[in-house]
Amino acid sequence: MRSTASPFEKGGLRGIKGDLTLANPPQPWQNHPPMLPERSTREVQVGPVRMGGHNPITVQSMCATRTQDLVGTLRQIRILEAAGADLIRIAIDSKKDVEALQELRQQTDAALVVDLQESYRLVEDLAPLVQKIRYNPGHLHHHEKEKTVSDKVAWIVERAVKHNCAIRIGVNCGSLDPRWQERYPGDDIEAMVASAAEHCEILDRLGFSNYLVSLKDSDPQKVIAGNKRFAELRPDVPLHLGVTEAGLPPEGIIKTRIAFEQLLSQGIGDTLRVSLTVPFDDKGEEIRVARQIIQDVKDGRFRSVPDLSGLNIISCPSCSRVENEKFVELAMAVKEMAQYAKEYDVTIAVMGCRVNGPGETDDADLGLWCAPNFVNLKKGEESLGQYSYDDILPRLKSELDVVIQSKSH
User: Fold this and answer.
1) Beta strands in 196-304 (DSSP E)
2) pLDDT by residue (tens digit) across 20-71?
3) What residues contact residue 22 under an 8 Å CB cut-off, 6+ apart?
4) What single string gives the DSSP state of each residue in 75-108?
């Protein structure tokens, strides 16, 4: 029985208020014949939501707040529901997060997806609360190494079957299983596809078919190449499309649109996630952008693919792992500060947490990953130290000047 001290009852969040109106849709552009062909994937059931097969392409997003912030997270759910999200993802990294999700589940009937992060054993308590479970093969590799990958996946599947949950195998270039990186050195795309294929085979052997796959990167060209290659290999498996850490609008929208237009027009993609770095109350913009892209491809309206040379700011969309909400403000400040370098082929990555931060900044010229009270600065894979949120921007600028100078020679 729930405690009478529930934050929901204290905060009166049953009647969340606020302007949830979304921005006006973009103007139409170059017209082509309609290009949203039939897809060949099988159907997957995610609670009340059907995806894959001949079902409409579904759209989802992820709560940006800390899961234990019950008031803030419920507001995120309400915002995403109002924007028309088919699925809402929540990150779980601890028992306290599970307890928070138990509270949230009593306040919403939304179809929920849980992101297991590095704590796959929490699925025991999570499966009864959600409609879909996402695990990352790269994260799974690092835990309980005395057990085989197949045994760990089987343990997840057993709980998913018991509670009628779907599964997403979520592979990211920035957090690949080291086994596949070693087998395909320098070829992240091949390693990503091979990792996804391996886990599909494991689920197939277990007789579990209610699953889908995602293959993501912050580079839209890698997303296109990886998903095309996987679709050729396993045309039956539904695909979840996304460009990770796409960044701030409008650049983040452009990167995402490039990947989605290329893939959807070839019949690849059954569900979409747009990842933008936006203020928490604007999270519904991700849903609006995704639906606009789907409609534009369906109607044959495409943007000309822009030249992505020059300054590239990568930033993650924020989620419950972010330990300081100033991360979004910092990403915006970095973008503004760095405009003087827009003509140079420089990538700056701004990550909001310790999970994605260390690895997914390695390929950037300069990388920031944010802790609760400081920001880690990197140059490629090299650590340049930790700085306060107030001091990081001038320090970053001095390093950016050095990078520009090196690229000018």
Assistant:
1) 211-216, 239-242, 271-273
2) 433 333 344 455 555 678 888 999 999 999 999 999 999 999 998 889 999 9
3) 83, 284, 285, 287, 288
4) HHHHHHHHHT-SEEEEE--SHHHHHHHHHHHTT-
Element (H or E) spanning 168, and its range?
strand 166-172
Q: Which residues contact 121 (CB under 8 A, 6 or more apart)?
A: 155
> pLDDT tens digits, residue range 149-208?
999 999 999 999 999 999 999 999 888 888 998 999 989 999 999 999 999 999 999 999
pLDDT at 52: 96
Ordered domains of the chain (ranges, CATH):
27-299 (3.20.20.20), 312-407 (3.30.413.10)
Q: Give the span between the Cα atoms of 70 and 247, in whole angstroms.
A: 26
φ/ψ (deg, to 5) at 140 = -60, -30
- Smallest CA-to-CA distance from 97 within 78, 128, 119, 75 is with 119
As a whole number of angstroms, the distance between CA 299 and CA 253 comes to: 19
Looking only at the bridges linking them, the beta strands covering 112-115 and 132-135 are parallel
